[in-house]
Amino acid sequence: MIVSDLLKVADLRLRLAWGPPELLERQVTGVTSTDLQDPARYLQPGELVLSGLVWWQPGHPAAQALRFATSLRSAGVAALLAGEGTHGEVPDGLVEACRVHGIPLLSVPAGTSFRAVTDRVYLRLWGDLRAQSAGAAAVPDGARRELVELMYAGAPAAEVLDGAVSRLGCGPCSLVTAAGRTIASSAGAPDPDPETVRLALPVPPGAVGAAGEGGGAALTIGEGGDSPFDGWYLYPHAAGPGQAAVLHGLADVLATLWTRSRGEAAERRRAAGRLAGLLTGAAPVHPAELGEALASCGLPAELPLIPLAARIDGLDAPWAADALAEALRCALAAGAAFAVGADERGRVVAVVADQDPVRLAAGLREVWPRLQSRLPDRHLLRVGVGPRAARPAAELAAGLRQARYALDAAAADRPRGCSVGASAELDSLAALVRGIPAEVADAFRRRLLDPLTEHDRHTGGALLATLVTFLDHDCSWARSAEALHVHVNTVHYRVRRIEELTDRDLGRLDDRLDLRAALLCGPPRER
Q1: From 10, 13, 37, 322, which residue has the greatest number of CB atoms within 10 Å?
Q2: pTM of the entire predicted model
């Protein structure tokens, strides 16, 4: 596909604002929407850039448009598609900036949605491109045309699969995700068990999972996703002999469906990124601005909302965002509203509408091992679930901070196991202490307990063990002596020495809590 192909799609009504013929021959590799003034870091070479020009301020210097065009040129984009809806026209200053930097500029009329542009590119033009691939050649031309027409008409995935099974005779099939979630199945095909699907999926390089022998090897749809979590797979329930080539061809043709879904997900992710930026920013969130951001994500401001935070140790944010989005689709009922995005610092944030936090955490824990198996062993996927925010404007940002704390507490508690934490589970001193940053916790522990550690090291004593036992037995002299197998007078002596070295009085509740918290901080930790 080249840029000039867009001008031939009559129902889009795109107009050429600037671009010589030679630049309109540029190859197109994808579509990205943005309203950032400097979006270079989010763009890929050869992409079409859709912009509503929200960043443009009438009357500002021409340098504003030049900065935007410079960003597009540095990313190597194929062309800019500028919407007329915000300002009524494409500003002359932007036309000149695109001329200076050699970027073809097409105007998108107010009556044409960006969604329509994205659909036409991916469904119509990319569908033709896919038809030229070697895999698709295994699908007869007539069958391929029928399937592409179904997808272009917006037919549900199940209807497309039915058409494929009927025309190709390849047996019942399902479309599944990396977490084993069934997207659609052909008529008569049962929804496959998620664990069976996981064992049939191709294993990403370095992942801890291993391919098994389920009901058939799942085939990657198209070229696969950018992360181990955002791809789709064709799962044949009972592939007959000699059908491998047809199934591979079908998987390639079905890439049009996945590409459409991927484009829609990218739009949702961008809207959620703005919401994430508001919730993680240093300034208080203005209710009107938050309400607008929630509405753009399809989230109802009048219902309670739950914030979540996620990360993958040692990996960039996009993978964590893909993993959390897939986990929520598995854990929530169909139609539940949620948004997942990342702020400018790459911190992944999700907001879920009208759910119970404890049940949500339980649902995430159920699917989490299947997602974790898609990652190399040293990269752990973690999430924290915050409290319900009945008044989002006043409580959502604070709830997100609780979600982050719950994430850190879960990471410290179970560094090699299930890493789903919930703020509702922070109901003890031990749980609370686990979320303290490792450096702070280690410093606190050393400050209070190093005198005991040094004493025991030089004298061979057991003051630290005595402190643990004494607190574990509710400061009972007799029961502590019995547990330590020493005389009660020995316990009295050791406790007095502990009080002298720590400058704490174990007869006071506050001092006992200080020492208990120091013990709970544990030995120096690695995260």
Answers
A1: 322
A2: 0.67
